[in-house]
Structure formats: C-alpha cells, structure tokens
Amino acid sequence: xxxxxxxxQLLAAGAVxxxxxGCIAGAPTDNITRLKSVEVREYKGKNLSSIAxxxxxxxxxxxxxxxxxxxxxxxxxxxxxxxxxxxxxxxxHSAVSxxxxxxxxxxxxxxxLWEGVLVEDLLRQADPKSRASVVILxxxxxYSTSFPVEYFKANKIMIANKMNGVDLPPERGFPFMLVAEQxxxxxxxxxxxxxxxxxxxxxxxxxxxxxxxxSGDLNKGFFTD
Length: 225
Ligand SMILES: Nc1nc2c(c(=O)[nH]1)N[C@H]1C(S)=C(S)[C@@H](COP(=O)(O)O)O[C@H]1N2
Ligand SMILES: [Mo]
What we know:
Layout: H1 3-23, H2 28-36, E1 42-43, E2 46-47, E3 72-76, E4 82-84, H3 86-91, E5 96-103, E6 109-118, H4 119-126, E7 134-139, E8 144-148, H5 150-155, E9 158-163, E10 166-167, E11 177-178, E12 192-198
Parallel strand pairs: 3-12
Antiparallel strand pairs: 1-2, 3-4, 5-6, 6-9, 7-8, 7-12, 9-10, 9-11
Bound molecules: the ligand Nc1nc2c(c(=O)[nH]1)N[C@H]1C(S)=C(S)[C@@H](COP(=O)(O)O)O[C@H]1N2 and molybdenum atom (MO).
C-alpha cells in the first residue's frame, strides 16, 4: 500500500469537500457525514499512527473482499458450525476497542485504535468440542496462522473491523483483521474468512511453516520455536 495513493485520495476528498462546500453551503449534515470517515490520530492522550504508516508486504498483495457476499465460517471441532455475514459478526456481538501496537519483523511498527468483536464471543456461538485445542485462521489470499484456543479468552483478543475510527480499508484487511496482541505482525491475519477449531498441534501457518516462530511471541525472537 503506497502513501502517495492515500495522499491522493485525501487530496481528492478535500477537493470534493471544497467544491460541495462552495455549492451547497448550509448543508451541515453533508459535512458531518464526511467528517466521520476521517481517521482519529489521538485517543485518551495517546498519539496514534496513521493508517498510511503500514508497509504493504502481503504475500499476494492487497485483496478486495466484497462485503455483500462475504461470510465468516467457523467450523472444524464445533457442535454448531457457523457461516456469518459481515452484519452477523458486527451487529450481533458487543463492540470492543483498544489501542494496540503492531510490530512487523521487518522493523516497523504502528500504534492503532482498533474496534471489533471478541473472538471468544464468536467461538462460543459455534460451541467448540472439548478436544479442540488449536484455532486455525485462514484468509482470502490463502494466508493462514494458528493459536492455542486459550489465547483468545485469556487476552480478550478481537477481530477488528475498524482502525482509528474508520472501516478497515481493503488493503488493510477488510472486513476483518486479527488484533494479535503480544504477537509479531505475521500473526495479525487480514481478510479473515474462516476460523477452524482443531486438535492438530502440528499445524503451521504460512510464515510459521517457513521457519518463523509458531508462538509468534513478541518477547521472544521470531526464529525461536
Ligand atoms: N491475509 C494476510 N494477512 C496478513 C499478511 C498477509 O500477507 N496476508 N501479512 C502479515 C504481516 S507480515 C504483517 S506485518 C501484518 C501487517 O501487514 P500490512 O502492513 O501488509 O497490512 O499483516 C499480517 N497479515
Ligand atoms: Mo510482517
């Protein structure tokens, strides 16, 4: 994802704003709608990074997942498999928000206000079988990663549909990105399409099967276990 593109979009939005402002001055609702789509850069006294500060290095480049046909599948070792629309996920679960820093192994990081729903709420809805010990997440681009099932509840982990107050842009993972707190960036899977409960502790995700740490713990090196 390139900064120039975001900058161009902002410029274009600014030009439209000026134009509309000039033509239909006294249409305040129009301004209010537009302001909502501007990202926040400060939250409870903390400075936030910009969405434009991410470096794009996805395995197959930016993906566009259409909202109307999207489904989040929850399957595997569950009693009630789920196939949820975007609204099923966002509107039928409580919203949570948190400022969390993403650290990529390449050396850059971003601090973002994330909003989404708790993974434990989604898992509960599918009623996991007791022998399910691993959660495997897969994405639109074929990417995958996995975690021990306890990780989500113990850390109140969310999948985010918003960053800095705006919907995730397509290239940043729309509709959902995992906010994998305390884990390296490669565990923060974007464009999530399925969450599979499993007992396969030998499963390794995309980067994990190429030598990166399976735990992905930030406080360990990324080439350890
Ligand atoms: N589906 C998918 N999710 C992904 C990746 C990817 O290639 N595909 N890259 C990961 C990596 S290495 C990082 S650091 C974060 C943020 O990457 P970005 O800046 O390219 O969004 O997304 C992670 N999630
Ligand atoms: Mo990364």
